[in-house]
Amino acid sequence: MRFLLTLTALLVYSHPFGETNAQVKKQISPYAEKGYLTFDLKPMGSQDRPLILRTFVPTLGLPQNNVLQNHSKGLPSPKYSPGSGKEATKQYQPIDGIPAAIAVNLGKPLSYVWDTTECRLLYAWTDGFLDMKNYWGDRDSGRRKGFGYVPRLYGFVFYKAIGKHPVSINGKSLSDLGSPKYSGYSIGSDRLPVYEFETGSSKVSIKIQPGPSTQTLRLDFSSKNKEILEFSSPSTQVEVKSKTAGKLSIVIRPNAGERFSSEEKKEPIKKPTKEIGEKLYTSLGCIACHSLDGGKNHGPTLKGSFGSKRQFLKASPLIVDEAYIRESIEHPMAKTVKGYLTGMMPPYKLQPAEYDSLNLFIKSIR
Amino acid sequence: MIRLHLSMKAFILFFLCLNYSVSASSYTVENIAFPDDMPPEVGGLAFDKNGNLYACLRRGDVVVTKPGKDPKSTKWKIFATGLHNPMGMVLVAPGHILISQMAELTEILDTNLDGVADHYNNLSTEFGISGNYHETNAICRDGDKGYYISLGTASHNGPTFFSPRGVYSKDGRRGRNFSSNHLRGWVVHYDKNRKLTPFASGFRMHNGITCSPDGEVWCGDNQGDWRGGSPIYNVRPGSFNGHPSSLVWDPDLKNFGTPIFLPRKMLDDLHNHPSVQLTRKTMNSCGEPFIIESNNFGPFNGQMLVPDENGPRINRIMMEKVDGAWQGASTLFLYTKELRSGGVRIAMDPSGKSIYYASTARGWQRPDEGLQRITYNGKTPFHVKDLKVITGGFKLWFTKAIQDPEKLAEKISVRSFQFEYGYRYGSSEKDKKEHKILKLTGTGPFEIQIDGLEAGRIFELEFSPKVLSLKGELIKQPRVQYTLNRIKRPDSTYTASLIESDDGIEVRIAGEFFAKYNFQKLSQPIIWPVQGPGGIRMLRDYPLKDGTPGEARDHPHHRAIFIGHQGMSGVNYWHNQNKNAGTVEHLKVIETRSGKDRAFIKTLNAWKDKDGKTIGADTRTMTFGGDSIARYLDLEINMHATNQDIVFNEFKDGFVGIRTHPHLRLSPSLKHGVEKVFGNARNSEGIEGKNIWGKRADWVHYYGTIENKKAGIAFFSHPSNLTKRGDKSWWHARDYGLISANPFAPVKIGGDGEHTIKKGQSLKLRYRFVFHSGPAKDAKIGQRFSEYAKDSGHPTSIMPEHPGYPENYLSN
Question: Is the CB of residue B158 less than 8 Å away from at least one CB of chain A?
């Protein structure tokens, strides 16, 4: 079974895969070329210039009870109306995401996420990195995606952490030694980060780099107190390259195989509805400045806005209608409502059905 | 209609402001260049001793430049990379910085001196991150090799993760901005021994923190929920700064339920009110306060600049210390189209002539970001230089002499207002008043006496365009506002001072012992001993001290001055030896003030049943003062129904009691070993002797001779106190020297009966004790009461009603 999975993975990988591969072949990424982050929303490093990115990263289904055992548990919470101060029976749901990890990309051959809370490698992939658009926003609007801003992983995931912490020290599993404490990382002449952490009285460091063949990883561990280090993980093929007192070098073979597209799925809206509008209201971030309950904020409330009379800083007054709402979303600088600051709202370019859905939603807020 | 009118006004003011300062001829604004593809979302800013400017950028890079004369040719070098929303930076040495970022406090070092960082050491991850986008951070030095870090809260406009870091609290997760994970909404202290301790709670989004040269810690915050205006806080250790969610991480508050649903008055009493509140006219959201430490940047050395995250403007703050706390004035420093919006940080270059102004607005408005240099050209601007409060008014300084100073009064209008404190997002101006100028004296500075100067309000002085400098310049900013939290205390020869210790606080008047508030090792806090002028002992020592000659050992629950009730929601807080006796636990001293004519102590207490279950809370303020013949103690107690409805069952024993010196007894008791007494009693209604028991009155007065000296004790109940079945308080005043004012005495003995404080609500009760020496008539008790009746007590903020508790409050 594992063999089959690996084989499939290799097949998929070796197949020239659409535009992602083509792009990577054609051009070197701005970061790899210049060494600083640009407006590029799909930044990539290279083996000469690894890109280290601290950001939120996806959970990729890693289980909380063992892999993420040192994280706490986020719970649903009652929805809150800031206008009335009351809670509703509806709930906010938590989302997937890992808050304090380090994501590293060495170009096409390897990306990985090492987590500072668990002090372990969480997953690795090839053929892509993180799409930061939902978090950083594009150059013009700068908007994160309301409730879905965790950067999107794209590429081919070939390794995922399984079970409790794979490292043991002098025969004792790290999971049983209490929460590890992340100490930091240093960068050597090869520009690769070497992570350090403490557990009990032990100080361990780890360096992660591509293995000898595609979709393999080379991990070099060392212990300051020269303890015996071992690595074992269920359903994972591990080849020990060298093992001496205080040192362990291994190669890990793939234990997963899942491709994540570089393109975000966008389902065309067949028919505009106010429910779609409501979703857009939160996901686009309108919620941050336009209340639904009459509460004052950076922008006017949506409550009772449709059909009401508006006064503007410069333009003549009008009755709020669909055309005005669309204009306000598409070209927010066109008119500024009296009593509010100009230039607070970024422009949004949406599908026509999305504007219509927002219109239906706004109409429904009486 | 009102809204429209306000909007119109705001619109006109907006343009007036711009017009006033477009010709900002004393300061030039230049744009510092970045490579076109480098997002200049500047979060942190600092100079090293070699004049290199470090800037940290939101996506994770730290870049360095040596700014030259021509800002367009600025060349940046990468120093460090791989940081998550770094928003705070301290420069330790060239090539050695400290960064606060989303996930941790990080030390970054260039150990091989090649100009690029090679070590990223984690100094602390001992605070939570929920995964919410809104959790800002900032850092400043503490002046002692340590640092303060501000940890912003999360916003309900974004989610939290299933797997956050740090302890998660469902009670902290509630509300608009929230503190779901450990220490969000706090300022924490990372000291020189590398230990992180919580320092102060109650912040919403304190995007920026500053420690002044004299060691004061300052944070701005953003207008929003629990922020009527944009506040600037003087962050005192242990203080709660108004935004409730973070209180889940305060161990003293942990038994009172979800912080956002605490009784409003309790939050108001806990609140370390902001030193300055800025209005929407000048500020939408505060960036990091910056203190000018230069004489080369105009005539404002020592003052504070605060940029606006949501507008092209910088405010200038003029602080002063009044009655033990910082407060002050604000005006616009710069408001010009040349300035970018989204101002978050300011740093001054080594010349002291220029400041660098960092802005970023990603995620909260249209992108407007970068770095600008603001340079003083040496031409003194015509501004308000300073504004301080004086008795009855303000003292005003301009930077330049003015034309026709004798006519200045006609060119200033004075108004005032308050901001609401509560869950709503921001506040309009409430309870607006216009004030007459009664008198204006001086030729600069000017002393302005105004009608109706009152603490707890924001005063605005507006200058007409006729206020001109000698050269005919128009004043740069037409308005200055003063946040008047406290007025100047009058001088007094009977100065009140406090001596704090582990078990209590001692009060002295003119250096002479008056009283001690004991809050440790007792079943409830007790005031004992109490001495009148000349050291006259006023109270029975027993049971706090046994063996004092002439004392009866009856009623051992009568402990000096004590607060309680025989039946509060079924728990006995009066008879402390009863099997159903509860305890009142002192949780913390919220605030003390002393010096001048009075001192006060404000504390938070938990009311628990015999099993330790919390029933309710109180915040009490005890104010102490004195004159040549008397000492007074004011008790203002706010009972808070935090955990359930509080029901004061009708009982004769309650609520504030005092047990007098045995010599003030009205009758002897051979059985108790008291053979001779020297006391008389009289109440405000003219009733005398033991007949005052069970009567209604404004006050009762026990007087006579204590240890051969004439003396007495008067006990006032404030007319504003709850009395359900009469105008005046019902008194449980006994001939053996117990006096108590009881608003919940049984109806059948003439009392007011049962009373319920609904969960989420509070009840205020106010009493005064006067301890005098000399004969009763000289003490002028009636006159003293009239003065007390007029005293409005400690101010209460304007607050929206408690929204009520959700139905499933306890179950989820």
Answer: yes
pLDDT-derived band at A61, boundaries 50, 70, 90 = very high
B126 and A CB contact within 8 Å:
no
Class of domain B567-790 (CATH, top level): mainly beta
| Residue A240 distance to chain B (closest CA, Å) | 29
Q: Domains of chain A (ranges plus CATH)?
A: 2-260 (no CATH), 274-364 (1.10.760.10)
Under an 8 A CB cutoff, do A136 and B362 touch? yes
Task: Tell me the shortest Cα–Cα distance from B198 to chain A, in angstroms.
Answer: 20
Conformational region of residue B595, where left means phi above 0, alpha means psi within -120 to 50, and beta covers everything else:
left
Sole residue written with tokens 């509806």: A90
Instruction: List the domain boundaries for chain B.
Output: 24-122+299-318+335-380, 126-206+209-286, 386-484, 567-790
Q: In this predicted model, what pLDDT tens digit does every residue of A143-188 receive, in sequence order?
A: 888 889 999 999 999 999 999 999 999 999 998 888 999 999 999 9
Question: How far does A14 lie from chain B, in Å, by closest CA?
Answer: 31
Query: What is the sign of the dihedral through the CA atoms of B407, B408, B411 and B416?
Result: negative
Euclidean distance between CA atoms A183 and A198, whole angstroms? 7
CA-based nearest residue in chain A for residue B285: A298
Name the stretches of chain B with pLDDT < 70. 1-24, 362-365, 808-812
Closest of B487, B723, B482 to residue B593, by C-alpha? B487
User: Residue B69: which of B54, B86, B57, B51 has the closest Cα?
Assistant: B51
CA-to-CA distance for A285 and B159, rounded, in angstroms?
12
Residues of B in contact with A35 (CB under 8 A): 78, 81
Cβ atoms within 10 Å of B745's Cβ, excluding its own: 27
User: Cα(A14)–Cα(A156) distance, rounded to whole angstroms?
Assistant: 11
Query: Looking at the partner chain, which of A84, A144, A295 has a beta carbon nearest the beta carbon of B133?
Result: A144
Give the model confidence (pLDDT) of B108-130 as tens digits: 999 999 999 999 999 999 999 99
- Determine contact, residues B529/B539, Cβ cutoff 8 Å: yes
> Chains A and B: how many Cβ contacts under 8 Å?
253
Say whether residue B59 is in contact with chain A using an 8 A CB cutoff.
yes
Q: Hey, are the CB atoms on B78 and A36 less than 8 Å from each other?
A: yes
> How large is the ipTM?
0.92
pLDDT at B363: 61
Q: Is B180 on the interface with A (CB under 8 A)?
A: yes
Closest-CA residue of A relative to B309 is A344
At residue A329, the pLDDT reads: 86
One CATH from 3.30.70, 2.20.28, 2.60.40, 3.40.390 for B386-484: 2.60.40
Measure the CA–CA gap between B715 and B26, rounded to whole angstroms: 62
Binary contact (B38, A36; C-beta < 8 A): yes
Return the pLDDT at B362: 67
Burial class (CB in 10 A: 0-12, 13-18, 19+), A151: buried
Shortest distance between the Cα of A10 and any Cα of chain B, in A, equals 31
For residues B66 and B74, give the distance between their C-alpha atoms in angstroms, rounded to a whole number: 8
Using one digit for the tens of pLDDT, what is the confidence trace for A98-139?
999 999 999 999 999 999 999 999 999 999 999 999 999 988
Report whether pLDDT(A204) > 60: yes
DSSP state at residue B10: H
The DSSP symbol for A326 reads H
For A130-164, the three-class secondary structure string (H helix, E strand, C coil) is: EECHHHHCCCCCCCCCCCCCCCEECEEEEEECCCC
- Residue A343 clears pLDDT 80, i.e. is over it: no
pLDDT, residue B639, reads: 98
- Per DSSP, the three-state class of B111 is coil
**What pLDDT, on a 0 to 100 scale, did the predictor assign at position A270?**
84
DSSP annotation of A282 reads H
Write the single-letter amino acid at B788. Y
Instruction: Say what the pLDDT of residue B479 is.
Output: 96
